[in-house]
């Protein structure tokens, strides 16, 4: 019997045995809630800092159940807040330091994967972002110029229409940007590898072990309790269920379709793109694609409405309208491939903070660390955030630049129904901005309004 698997990625793992459950009383130096990438990278970083420490990861379902086992597999150096905004808050040197850490992080992940890189389908093929209108082109040029002016490490490279086509025949591209600092990965294999390696290092990973906070340093579950010197919460979009984090992050849906493997002829018509290339275009409502080595295209997008009260499980099933919408967008982008068959779909939620900054927060009096809020850019960033969380939990190797940027005081989301209204109006304005392509004045007015509503 296979374990429940809410994504093609998790199904492909074919796991059929649960890890142990929390059963009785347990003591640990560091207890981590959430068996996704954040929790597992944090656990590894704790052991790097303090070899021999006792670490337990408690996962409510199975490892990778959340966004970590469902995502689009872009391991990137993207940050959810624009570089201009980061520079206004932390100075150009703050933006440069952050970008450099994000770039180095990717090299470090690759080095850490070592011989396992092929097993987790790690391909360092970069990302191509197509401009499919003059307005999108102007925006991409402005973004690259900003990266250059700030002196950011490895900025995007502008491509003309032929340059885009040479990488991937995206229909209607008038130009684009190539972002070299991006790899694609099989996310469920990555998260499973981290769990197995953690167990080999002496860490304990428990599944079907949902817990909630007790007194400081205590976690309570149905099967038992854990007493730890430090507790790390790494529950991302699920955090609203814990009263302490209730309005820290809004869960926003992101949903994916997977195609059947493209034929050799289809791939040729698309210009024989490199295996593992990731792609997108310059629209406002985020879309993202990955061309897997097996010929499948994994293609996702946002836009499904936010659920009142920060619910999450609704996003797992992709409704017929969303599935058709994603299929139509993909067919439009890769028109030259001809008909593309869709074989699977699934979804999940990303955790978005009120100002779109990810957070790593430490409350020494409560002996608690909170990590999360990647707003859809967490596949690689979870490692950096996990290192900072581990530094707080162990008291060693704190990265001061990261600590300042990710340690901003939390601005809470509004209570319901304002939160429901704000997020959904923001989504509507994002769509409207895209629909107003070719009408720059109206588009700018909508963008200003959207920025005010979404805090972005
Ligand atoms: C559809 C989709 C596509 C995405 N695509 C990309 C992409 O291409 N690139 C990118 O960089 N990012 C992407 N992201 C975002 C990225 O996947 C996340 O930022 C990242 O995986 C977050 O990892 P995490 O460990 O913090 O959270 P999660 O993976 O969500 O892990 C949290 C875990 O906590 C567990 N949990 C919750 N409550 C409890 C409790 N009380 N007790 C015990 N356990 C609990 C959950 O079961 C879950 O497994 C995408 C996200 C989605 C949903």
TrEMBL record:
Any GO CC annotation of this UniProt entry: cytoplasm
Entry-linked InterPro entries: FAD-dep_OxRdtase, FAD/NAD-bd_sf
Pfam families, per database record: DAO (PF01266)
Top-level taxonomic group: Bacteria
Domain annotation FAD dependent oxidoreductase: ranges: 29-391
PANTHER family: FAD DEPENDENT OXIDOREDUCTASE DOMAIN-CONTAINING PROTEIN, SARCOSINE DEHYDROGENASE-RELATED
Protein name: FAD dependent oxidoreductase
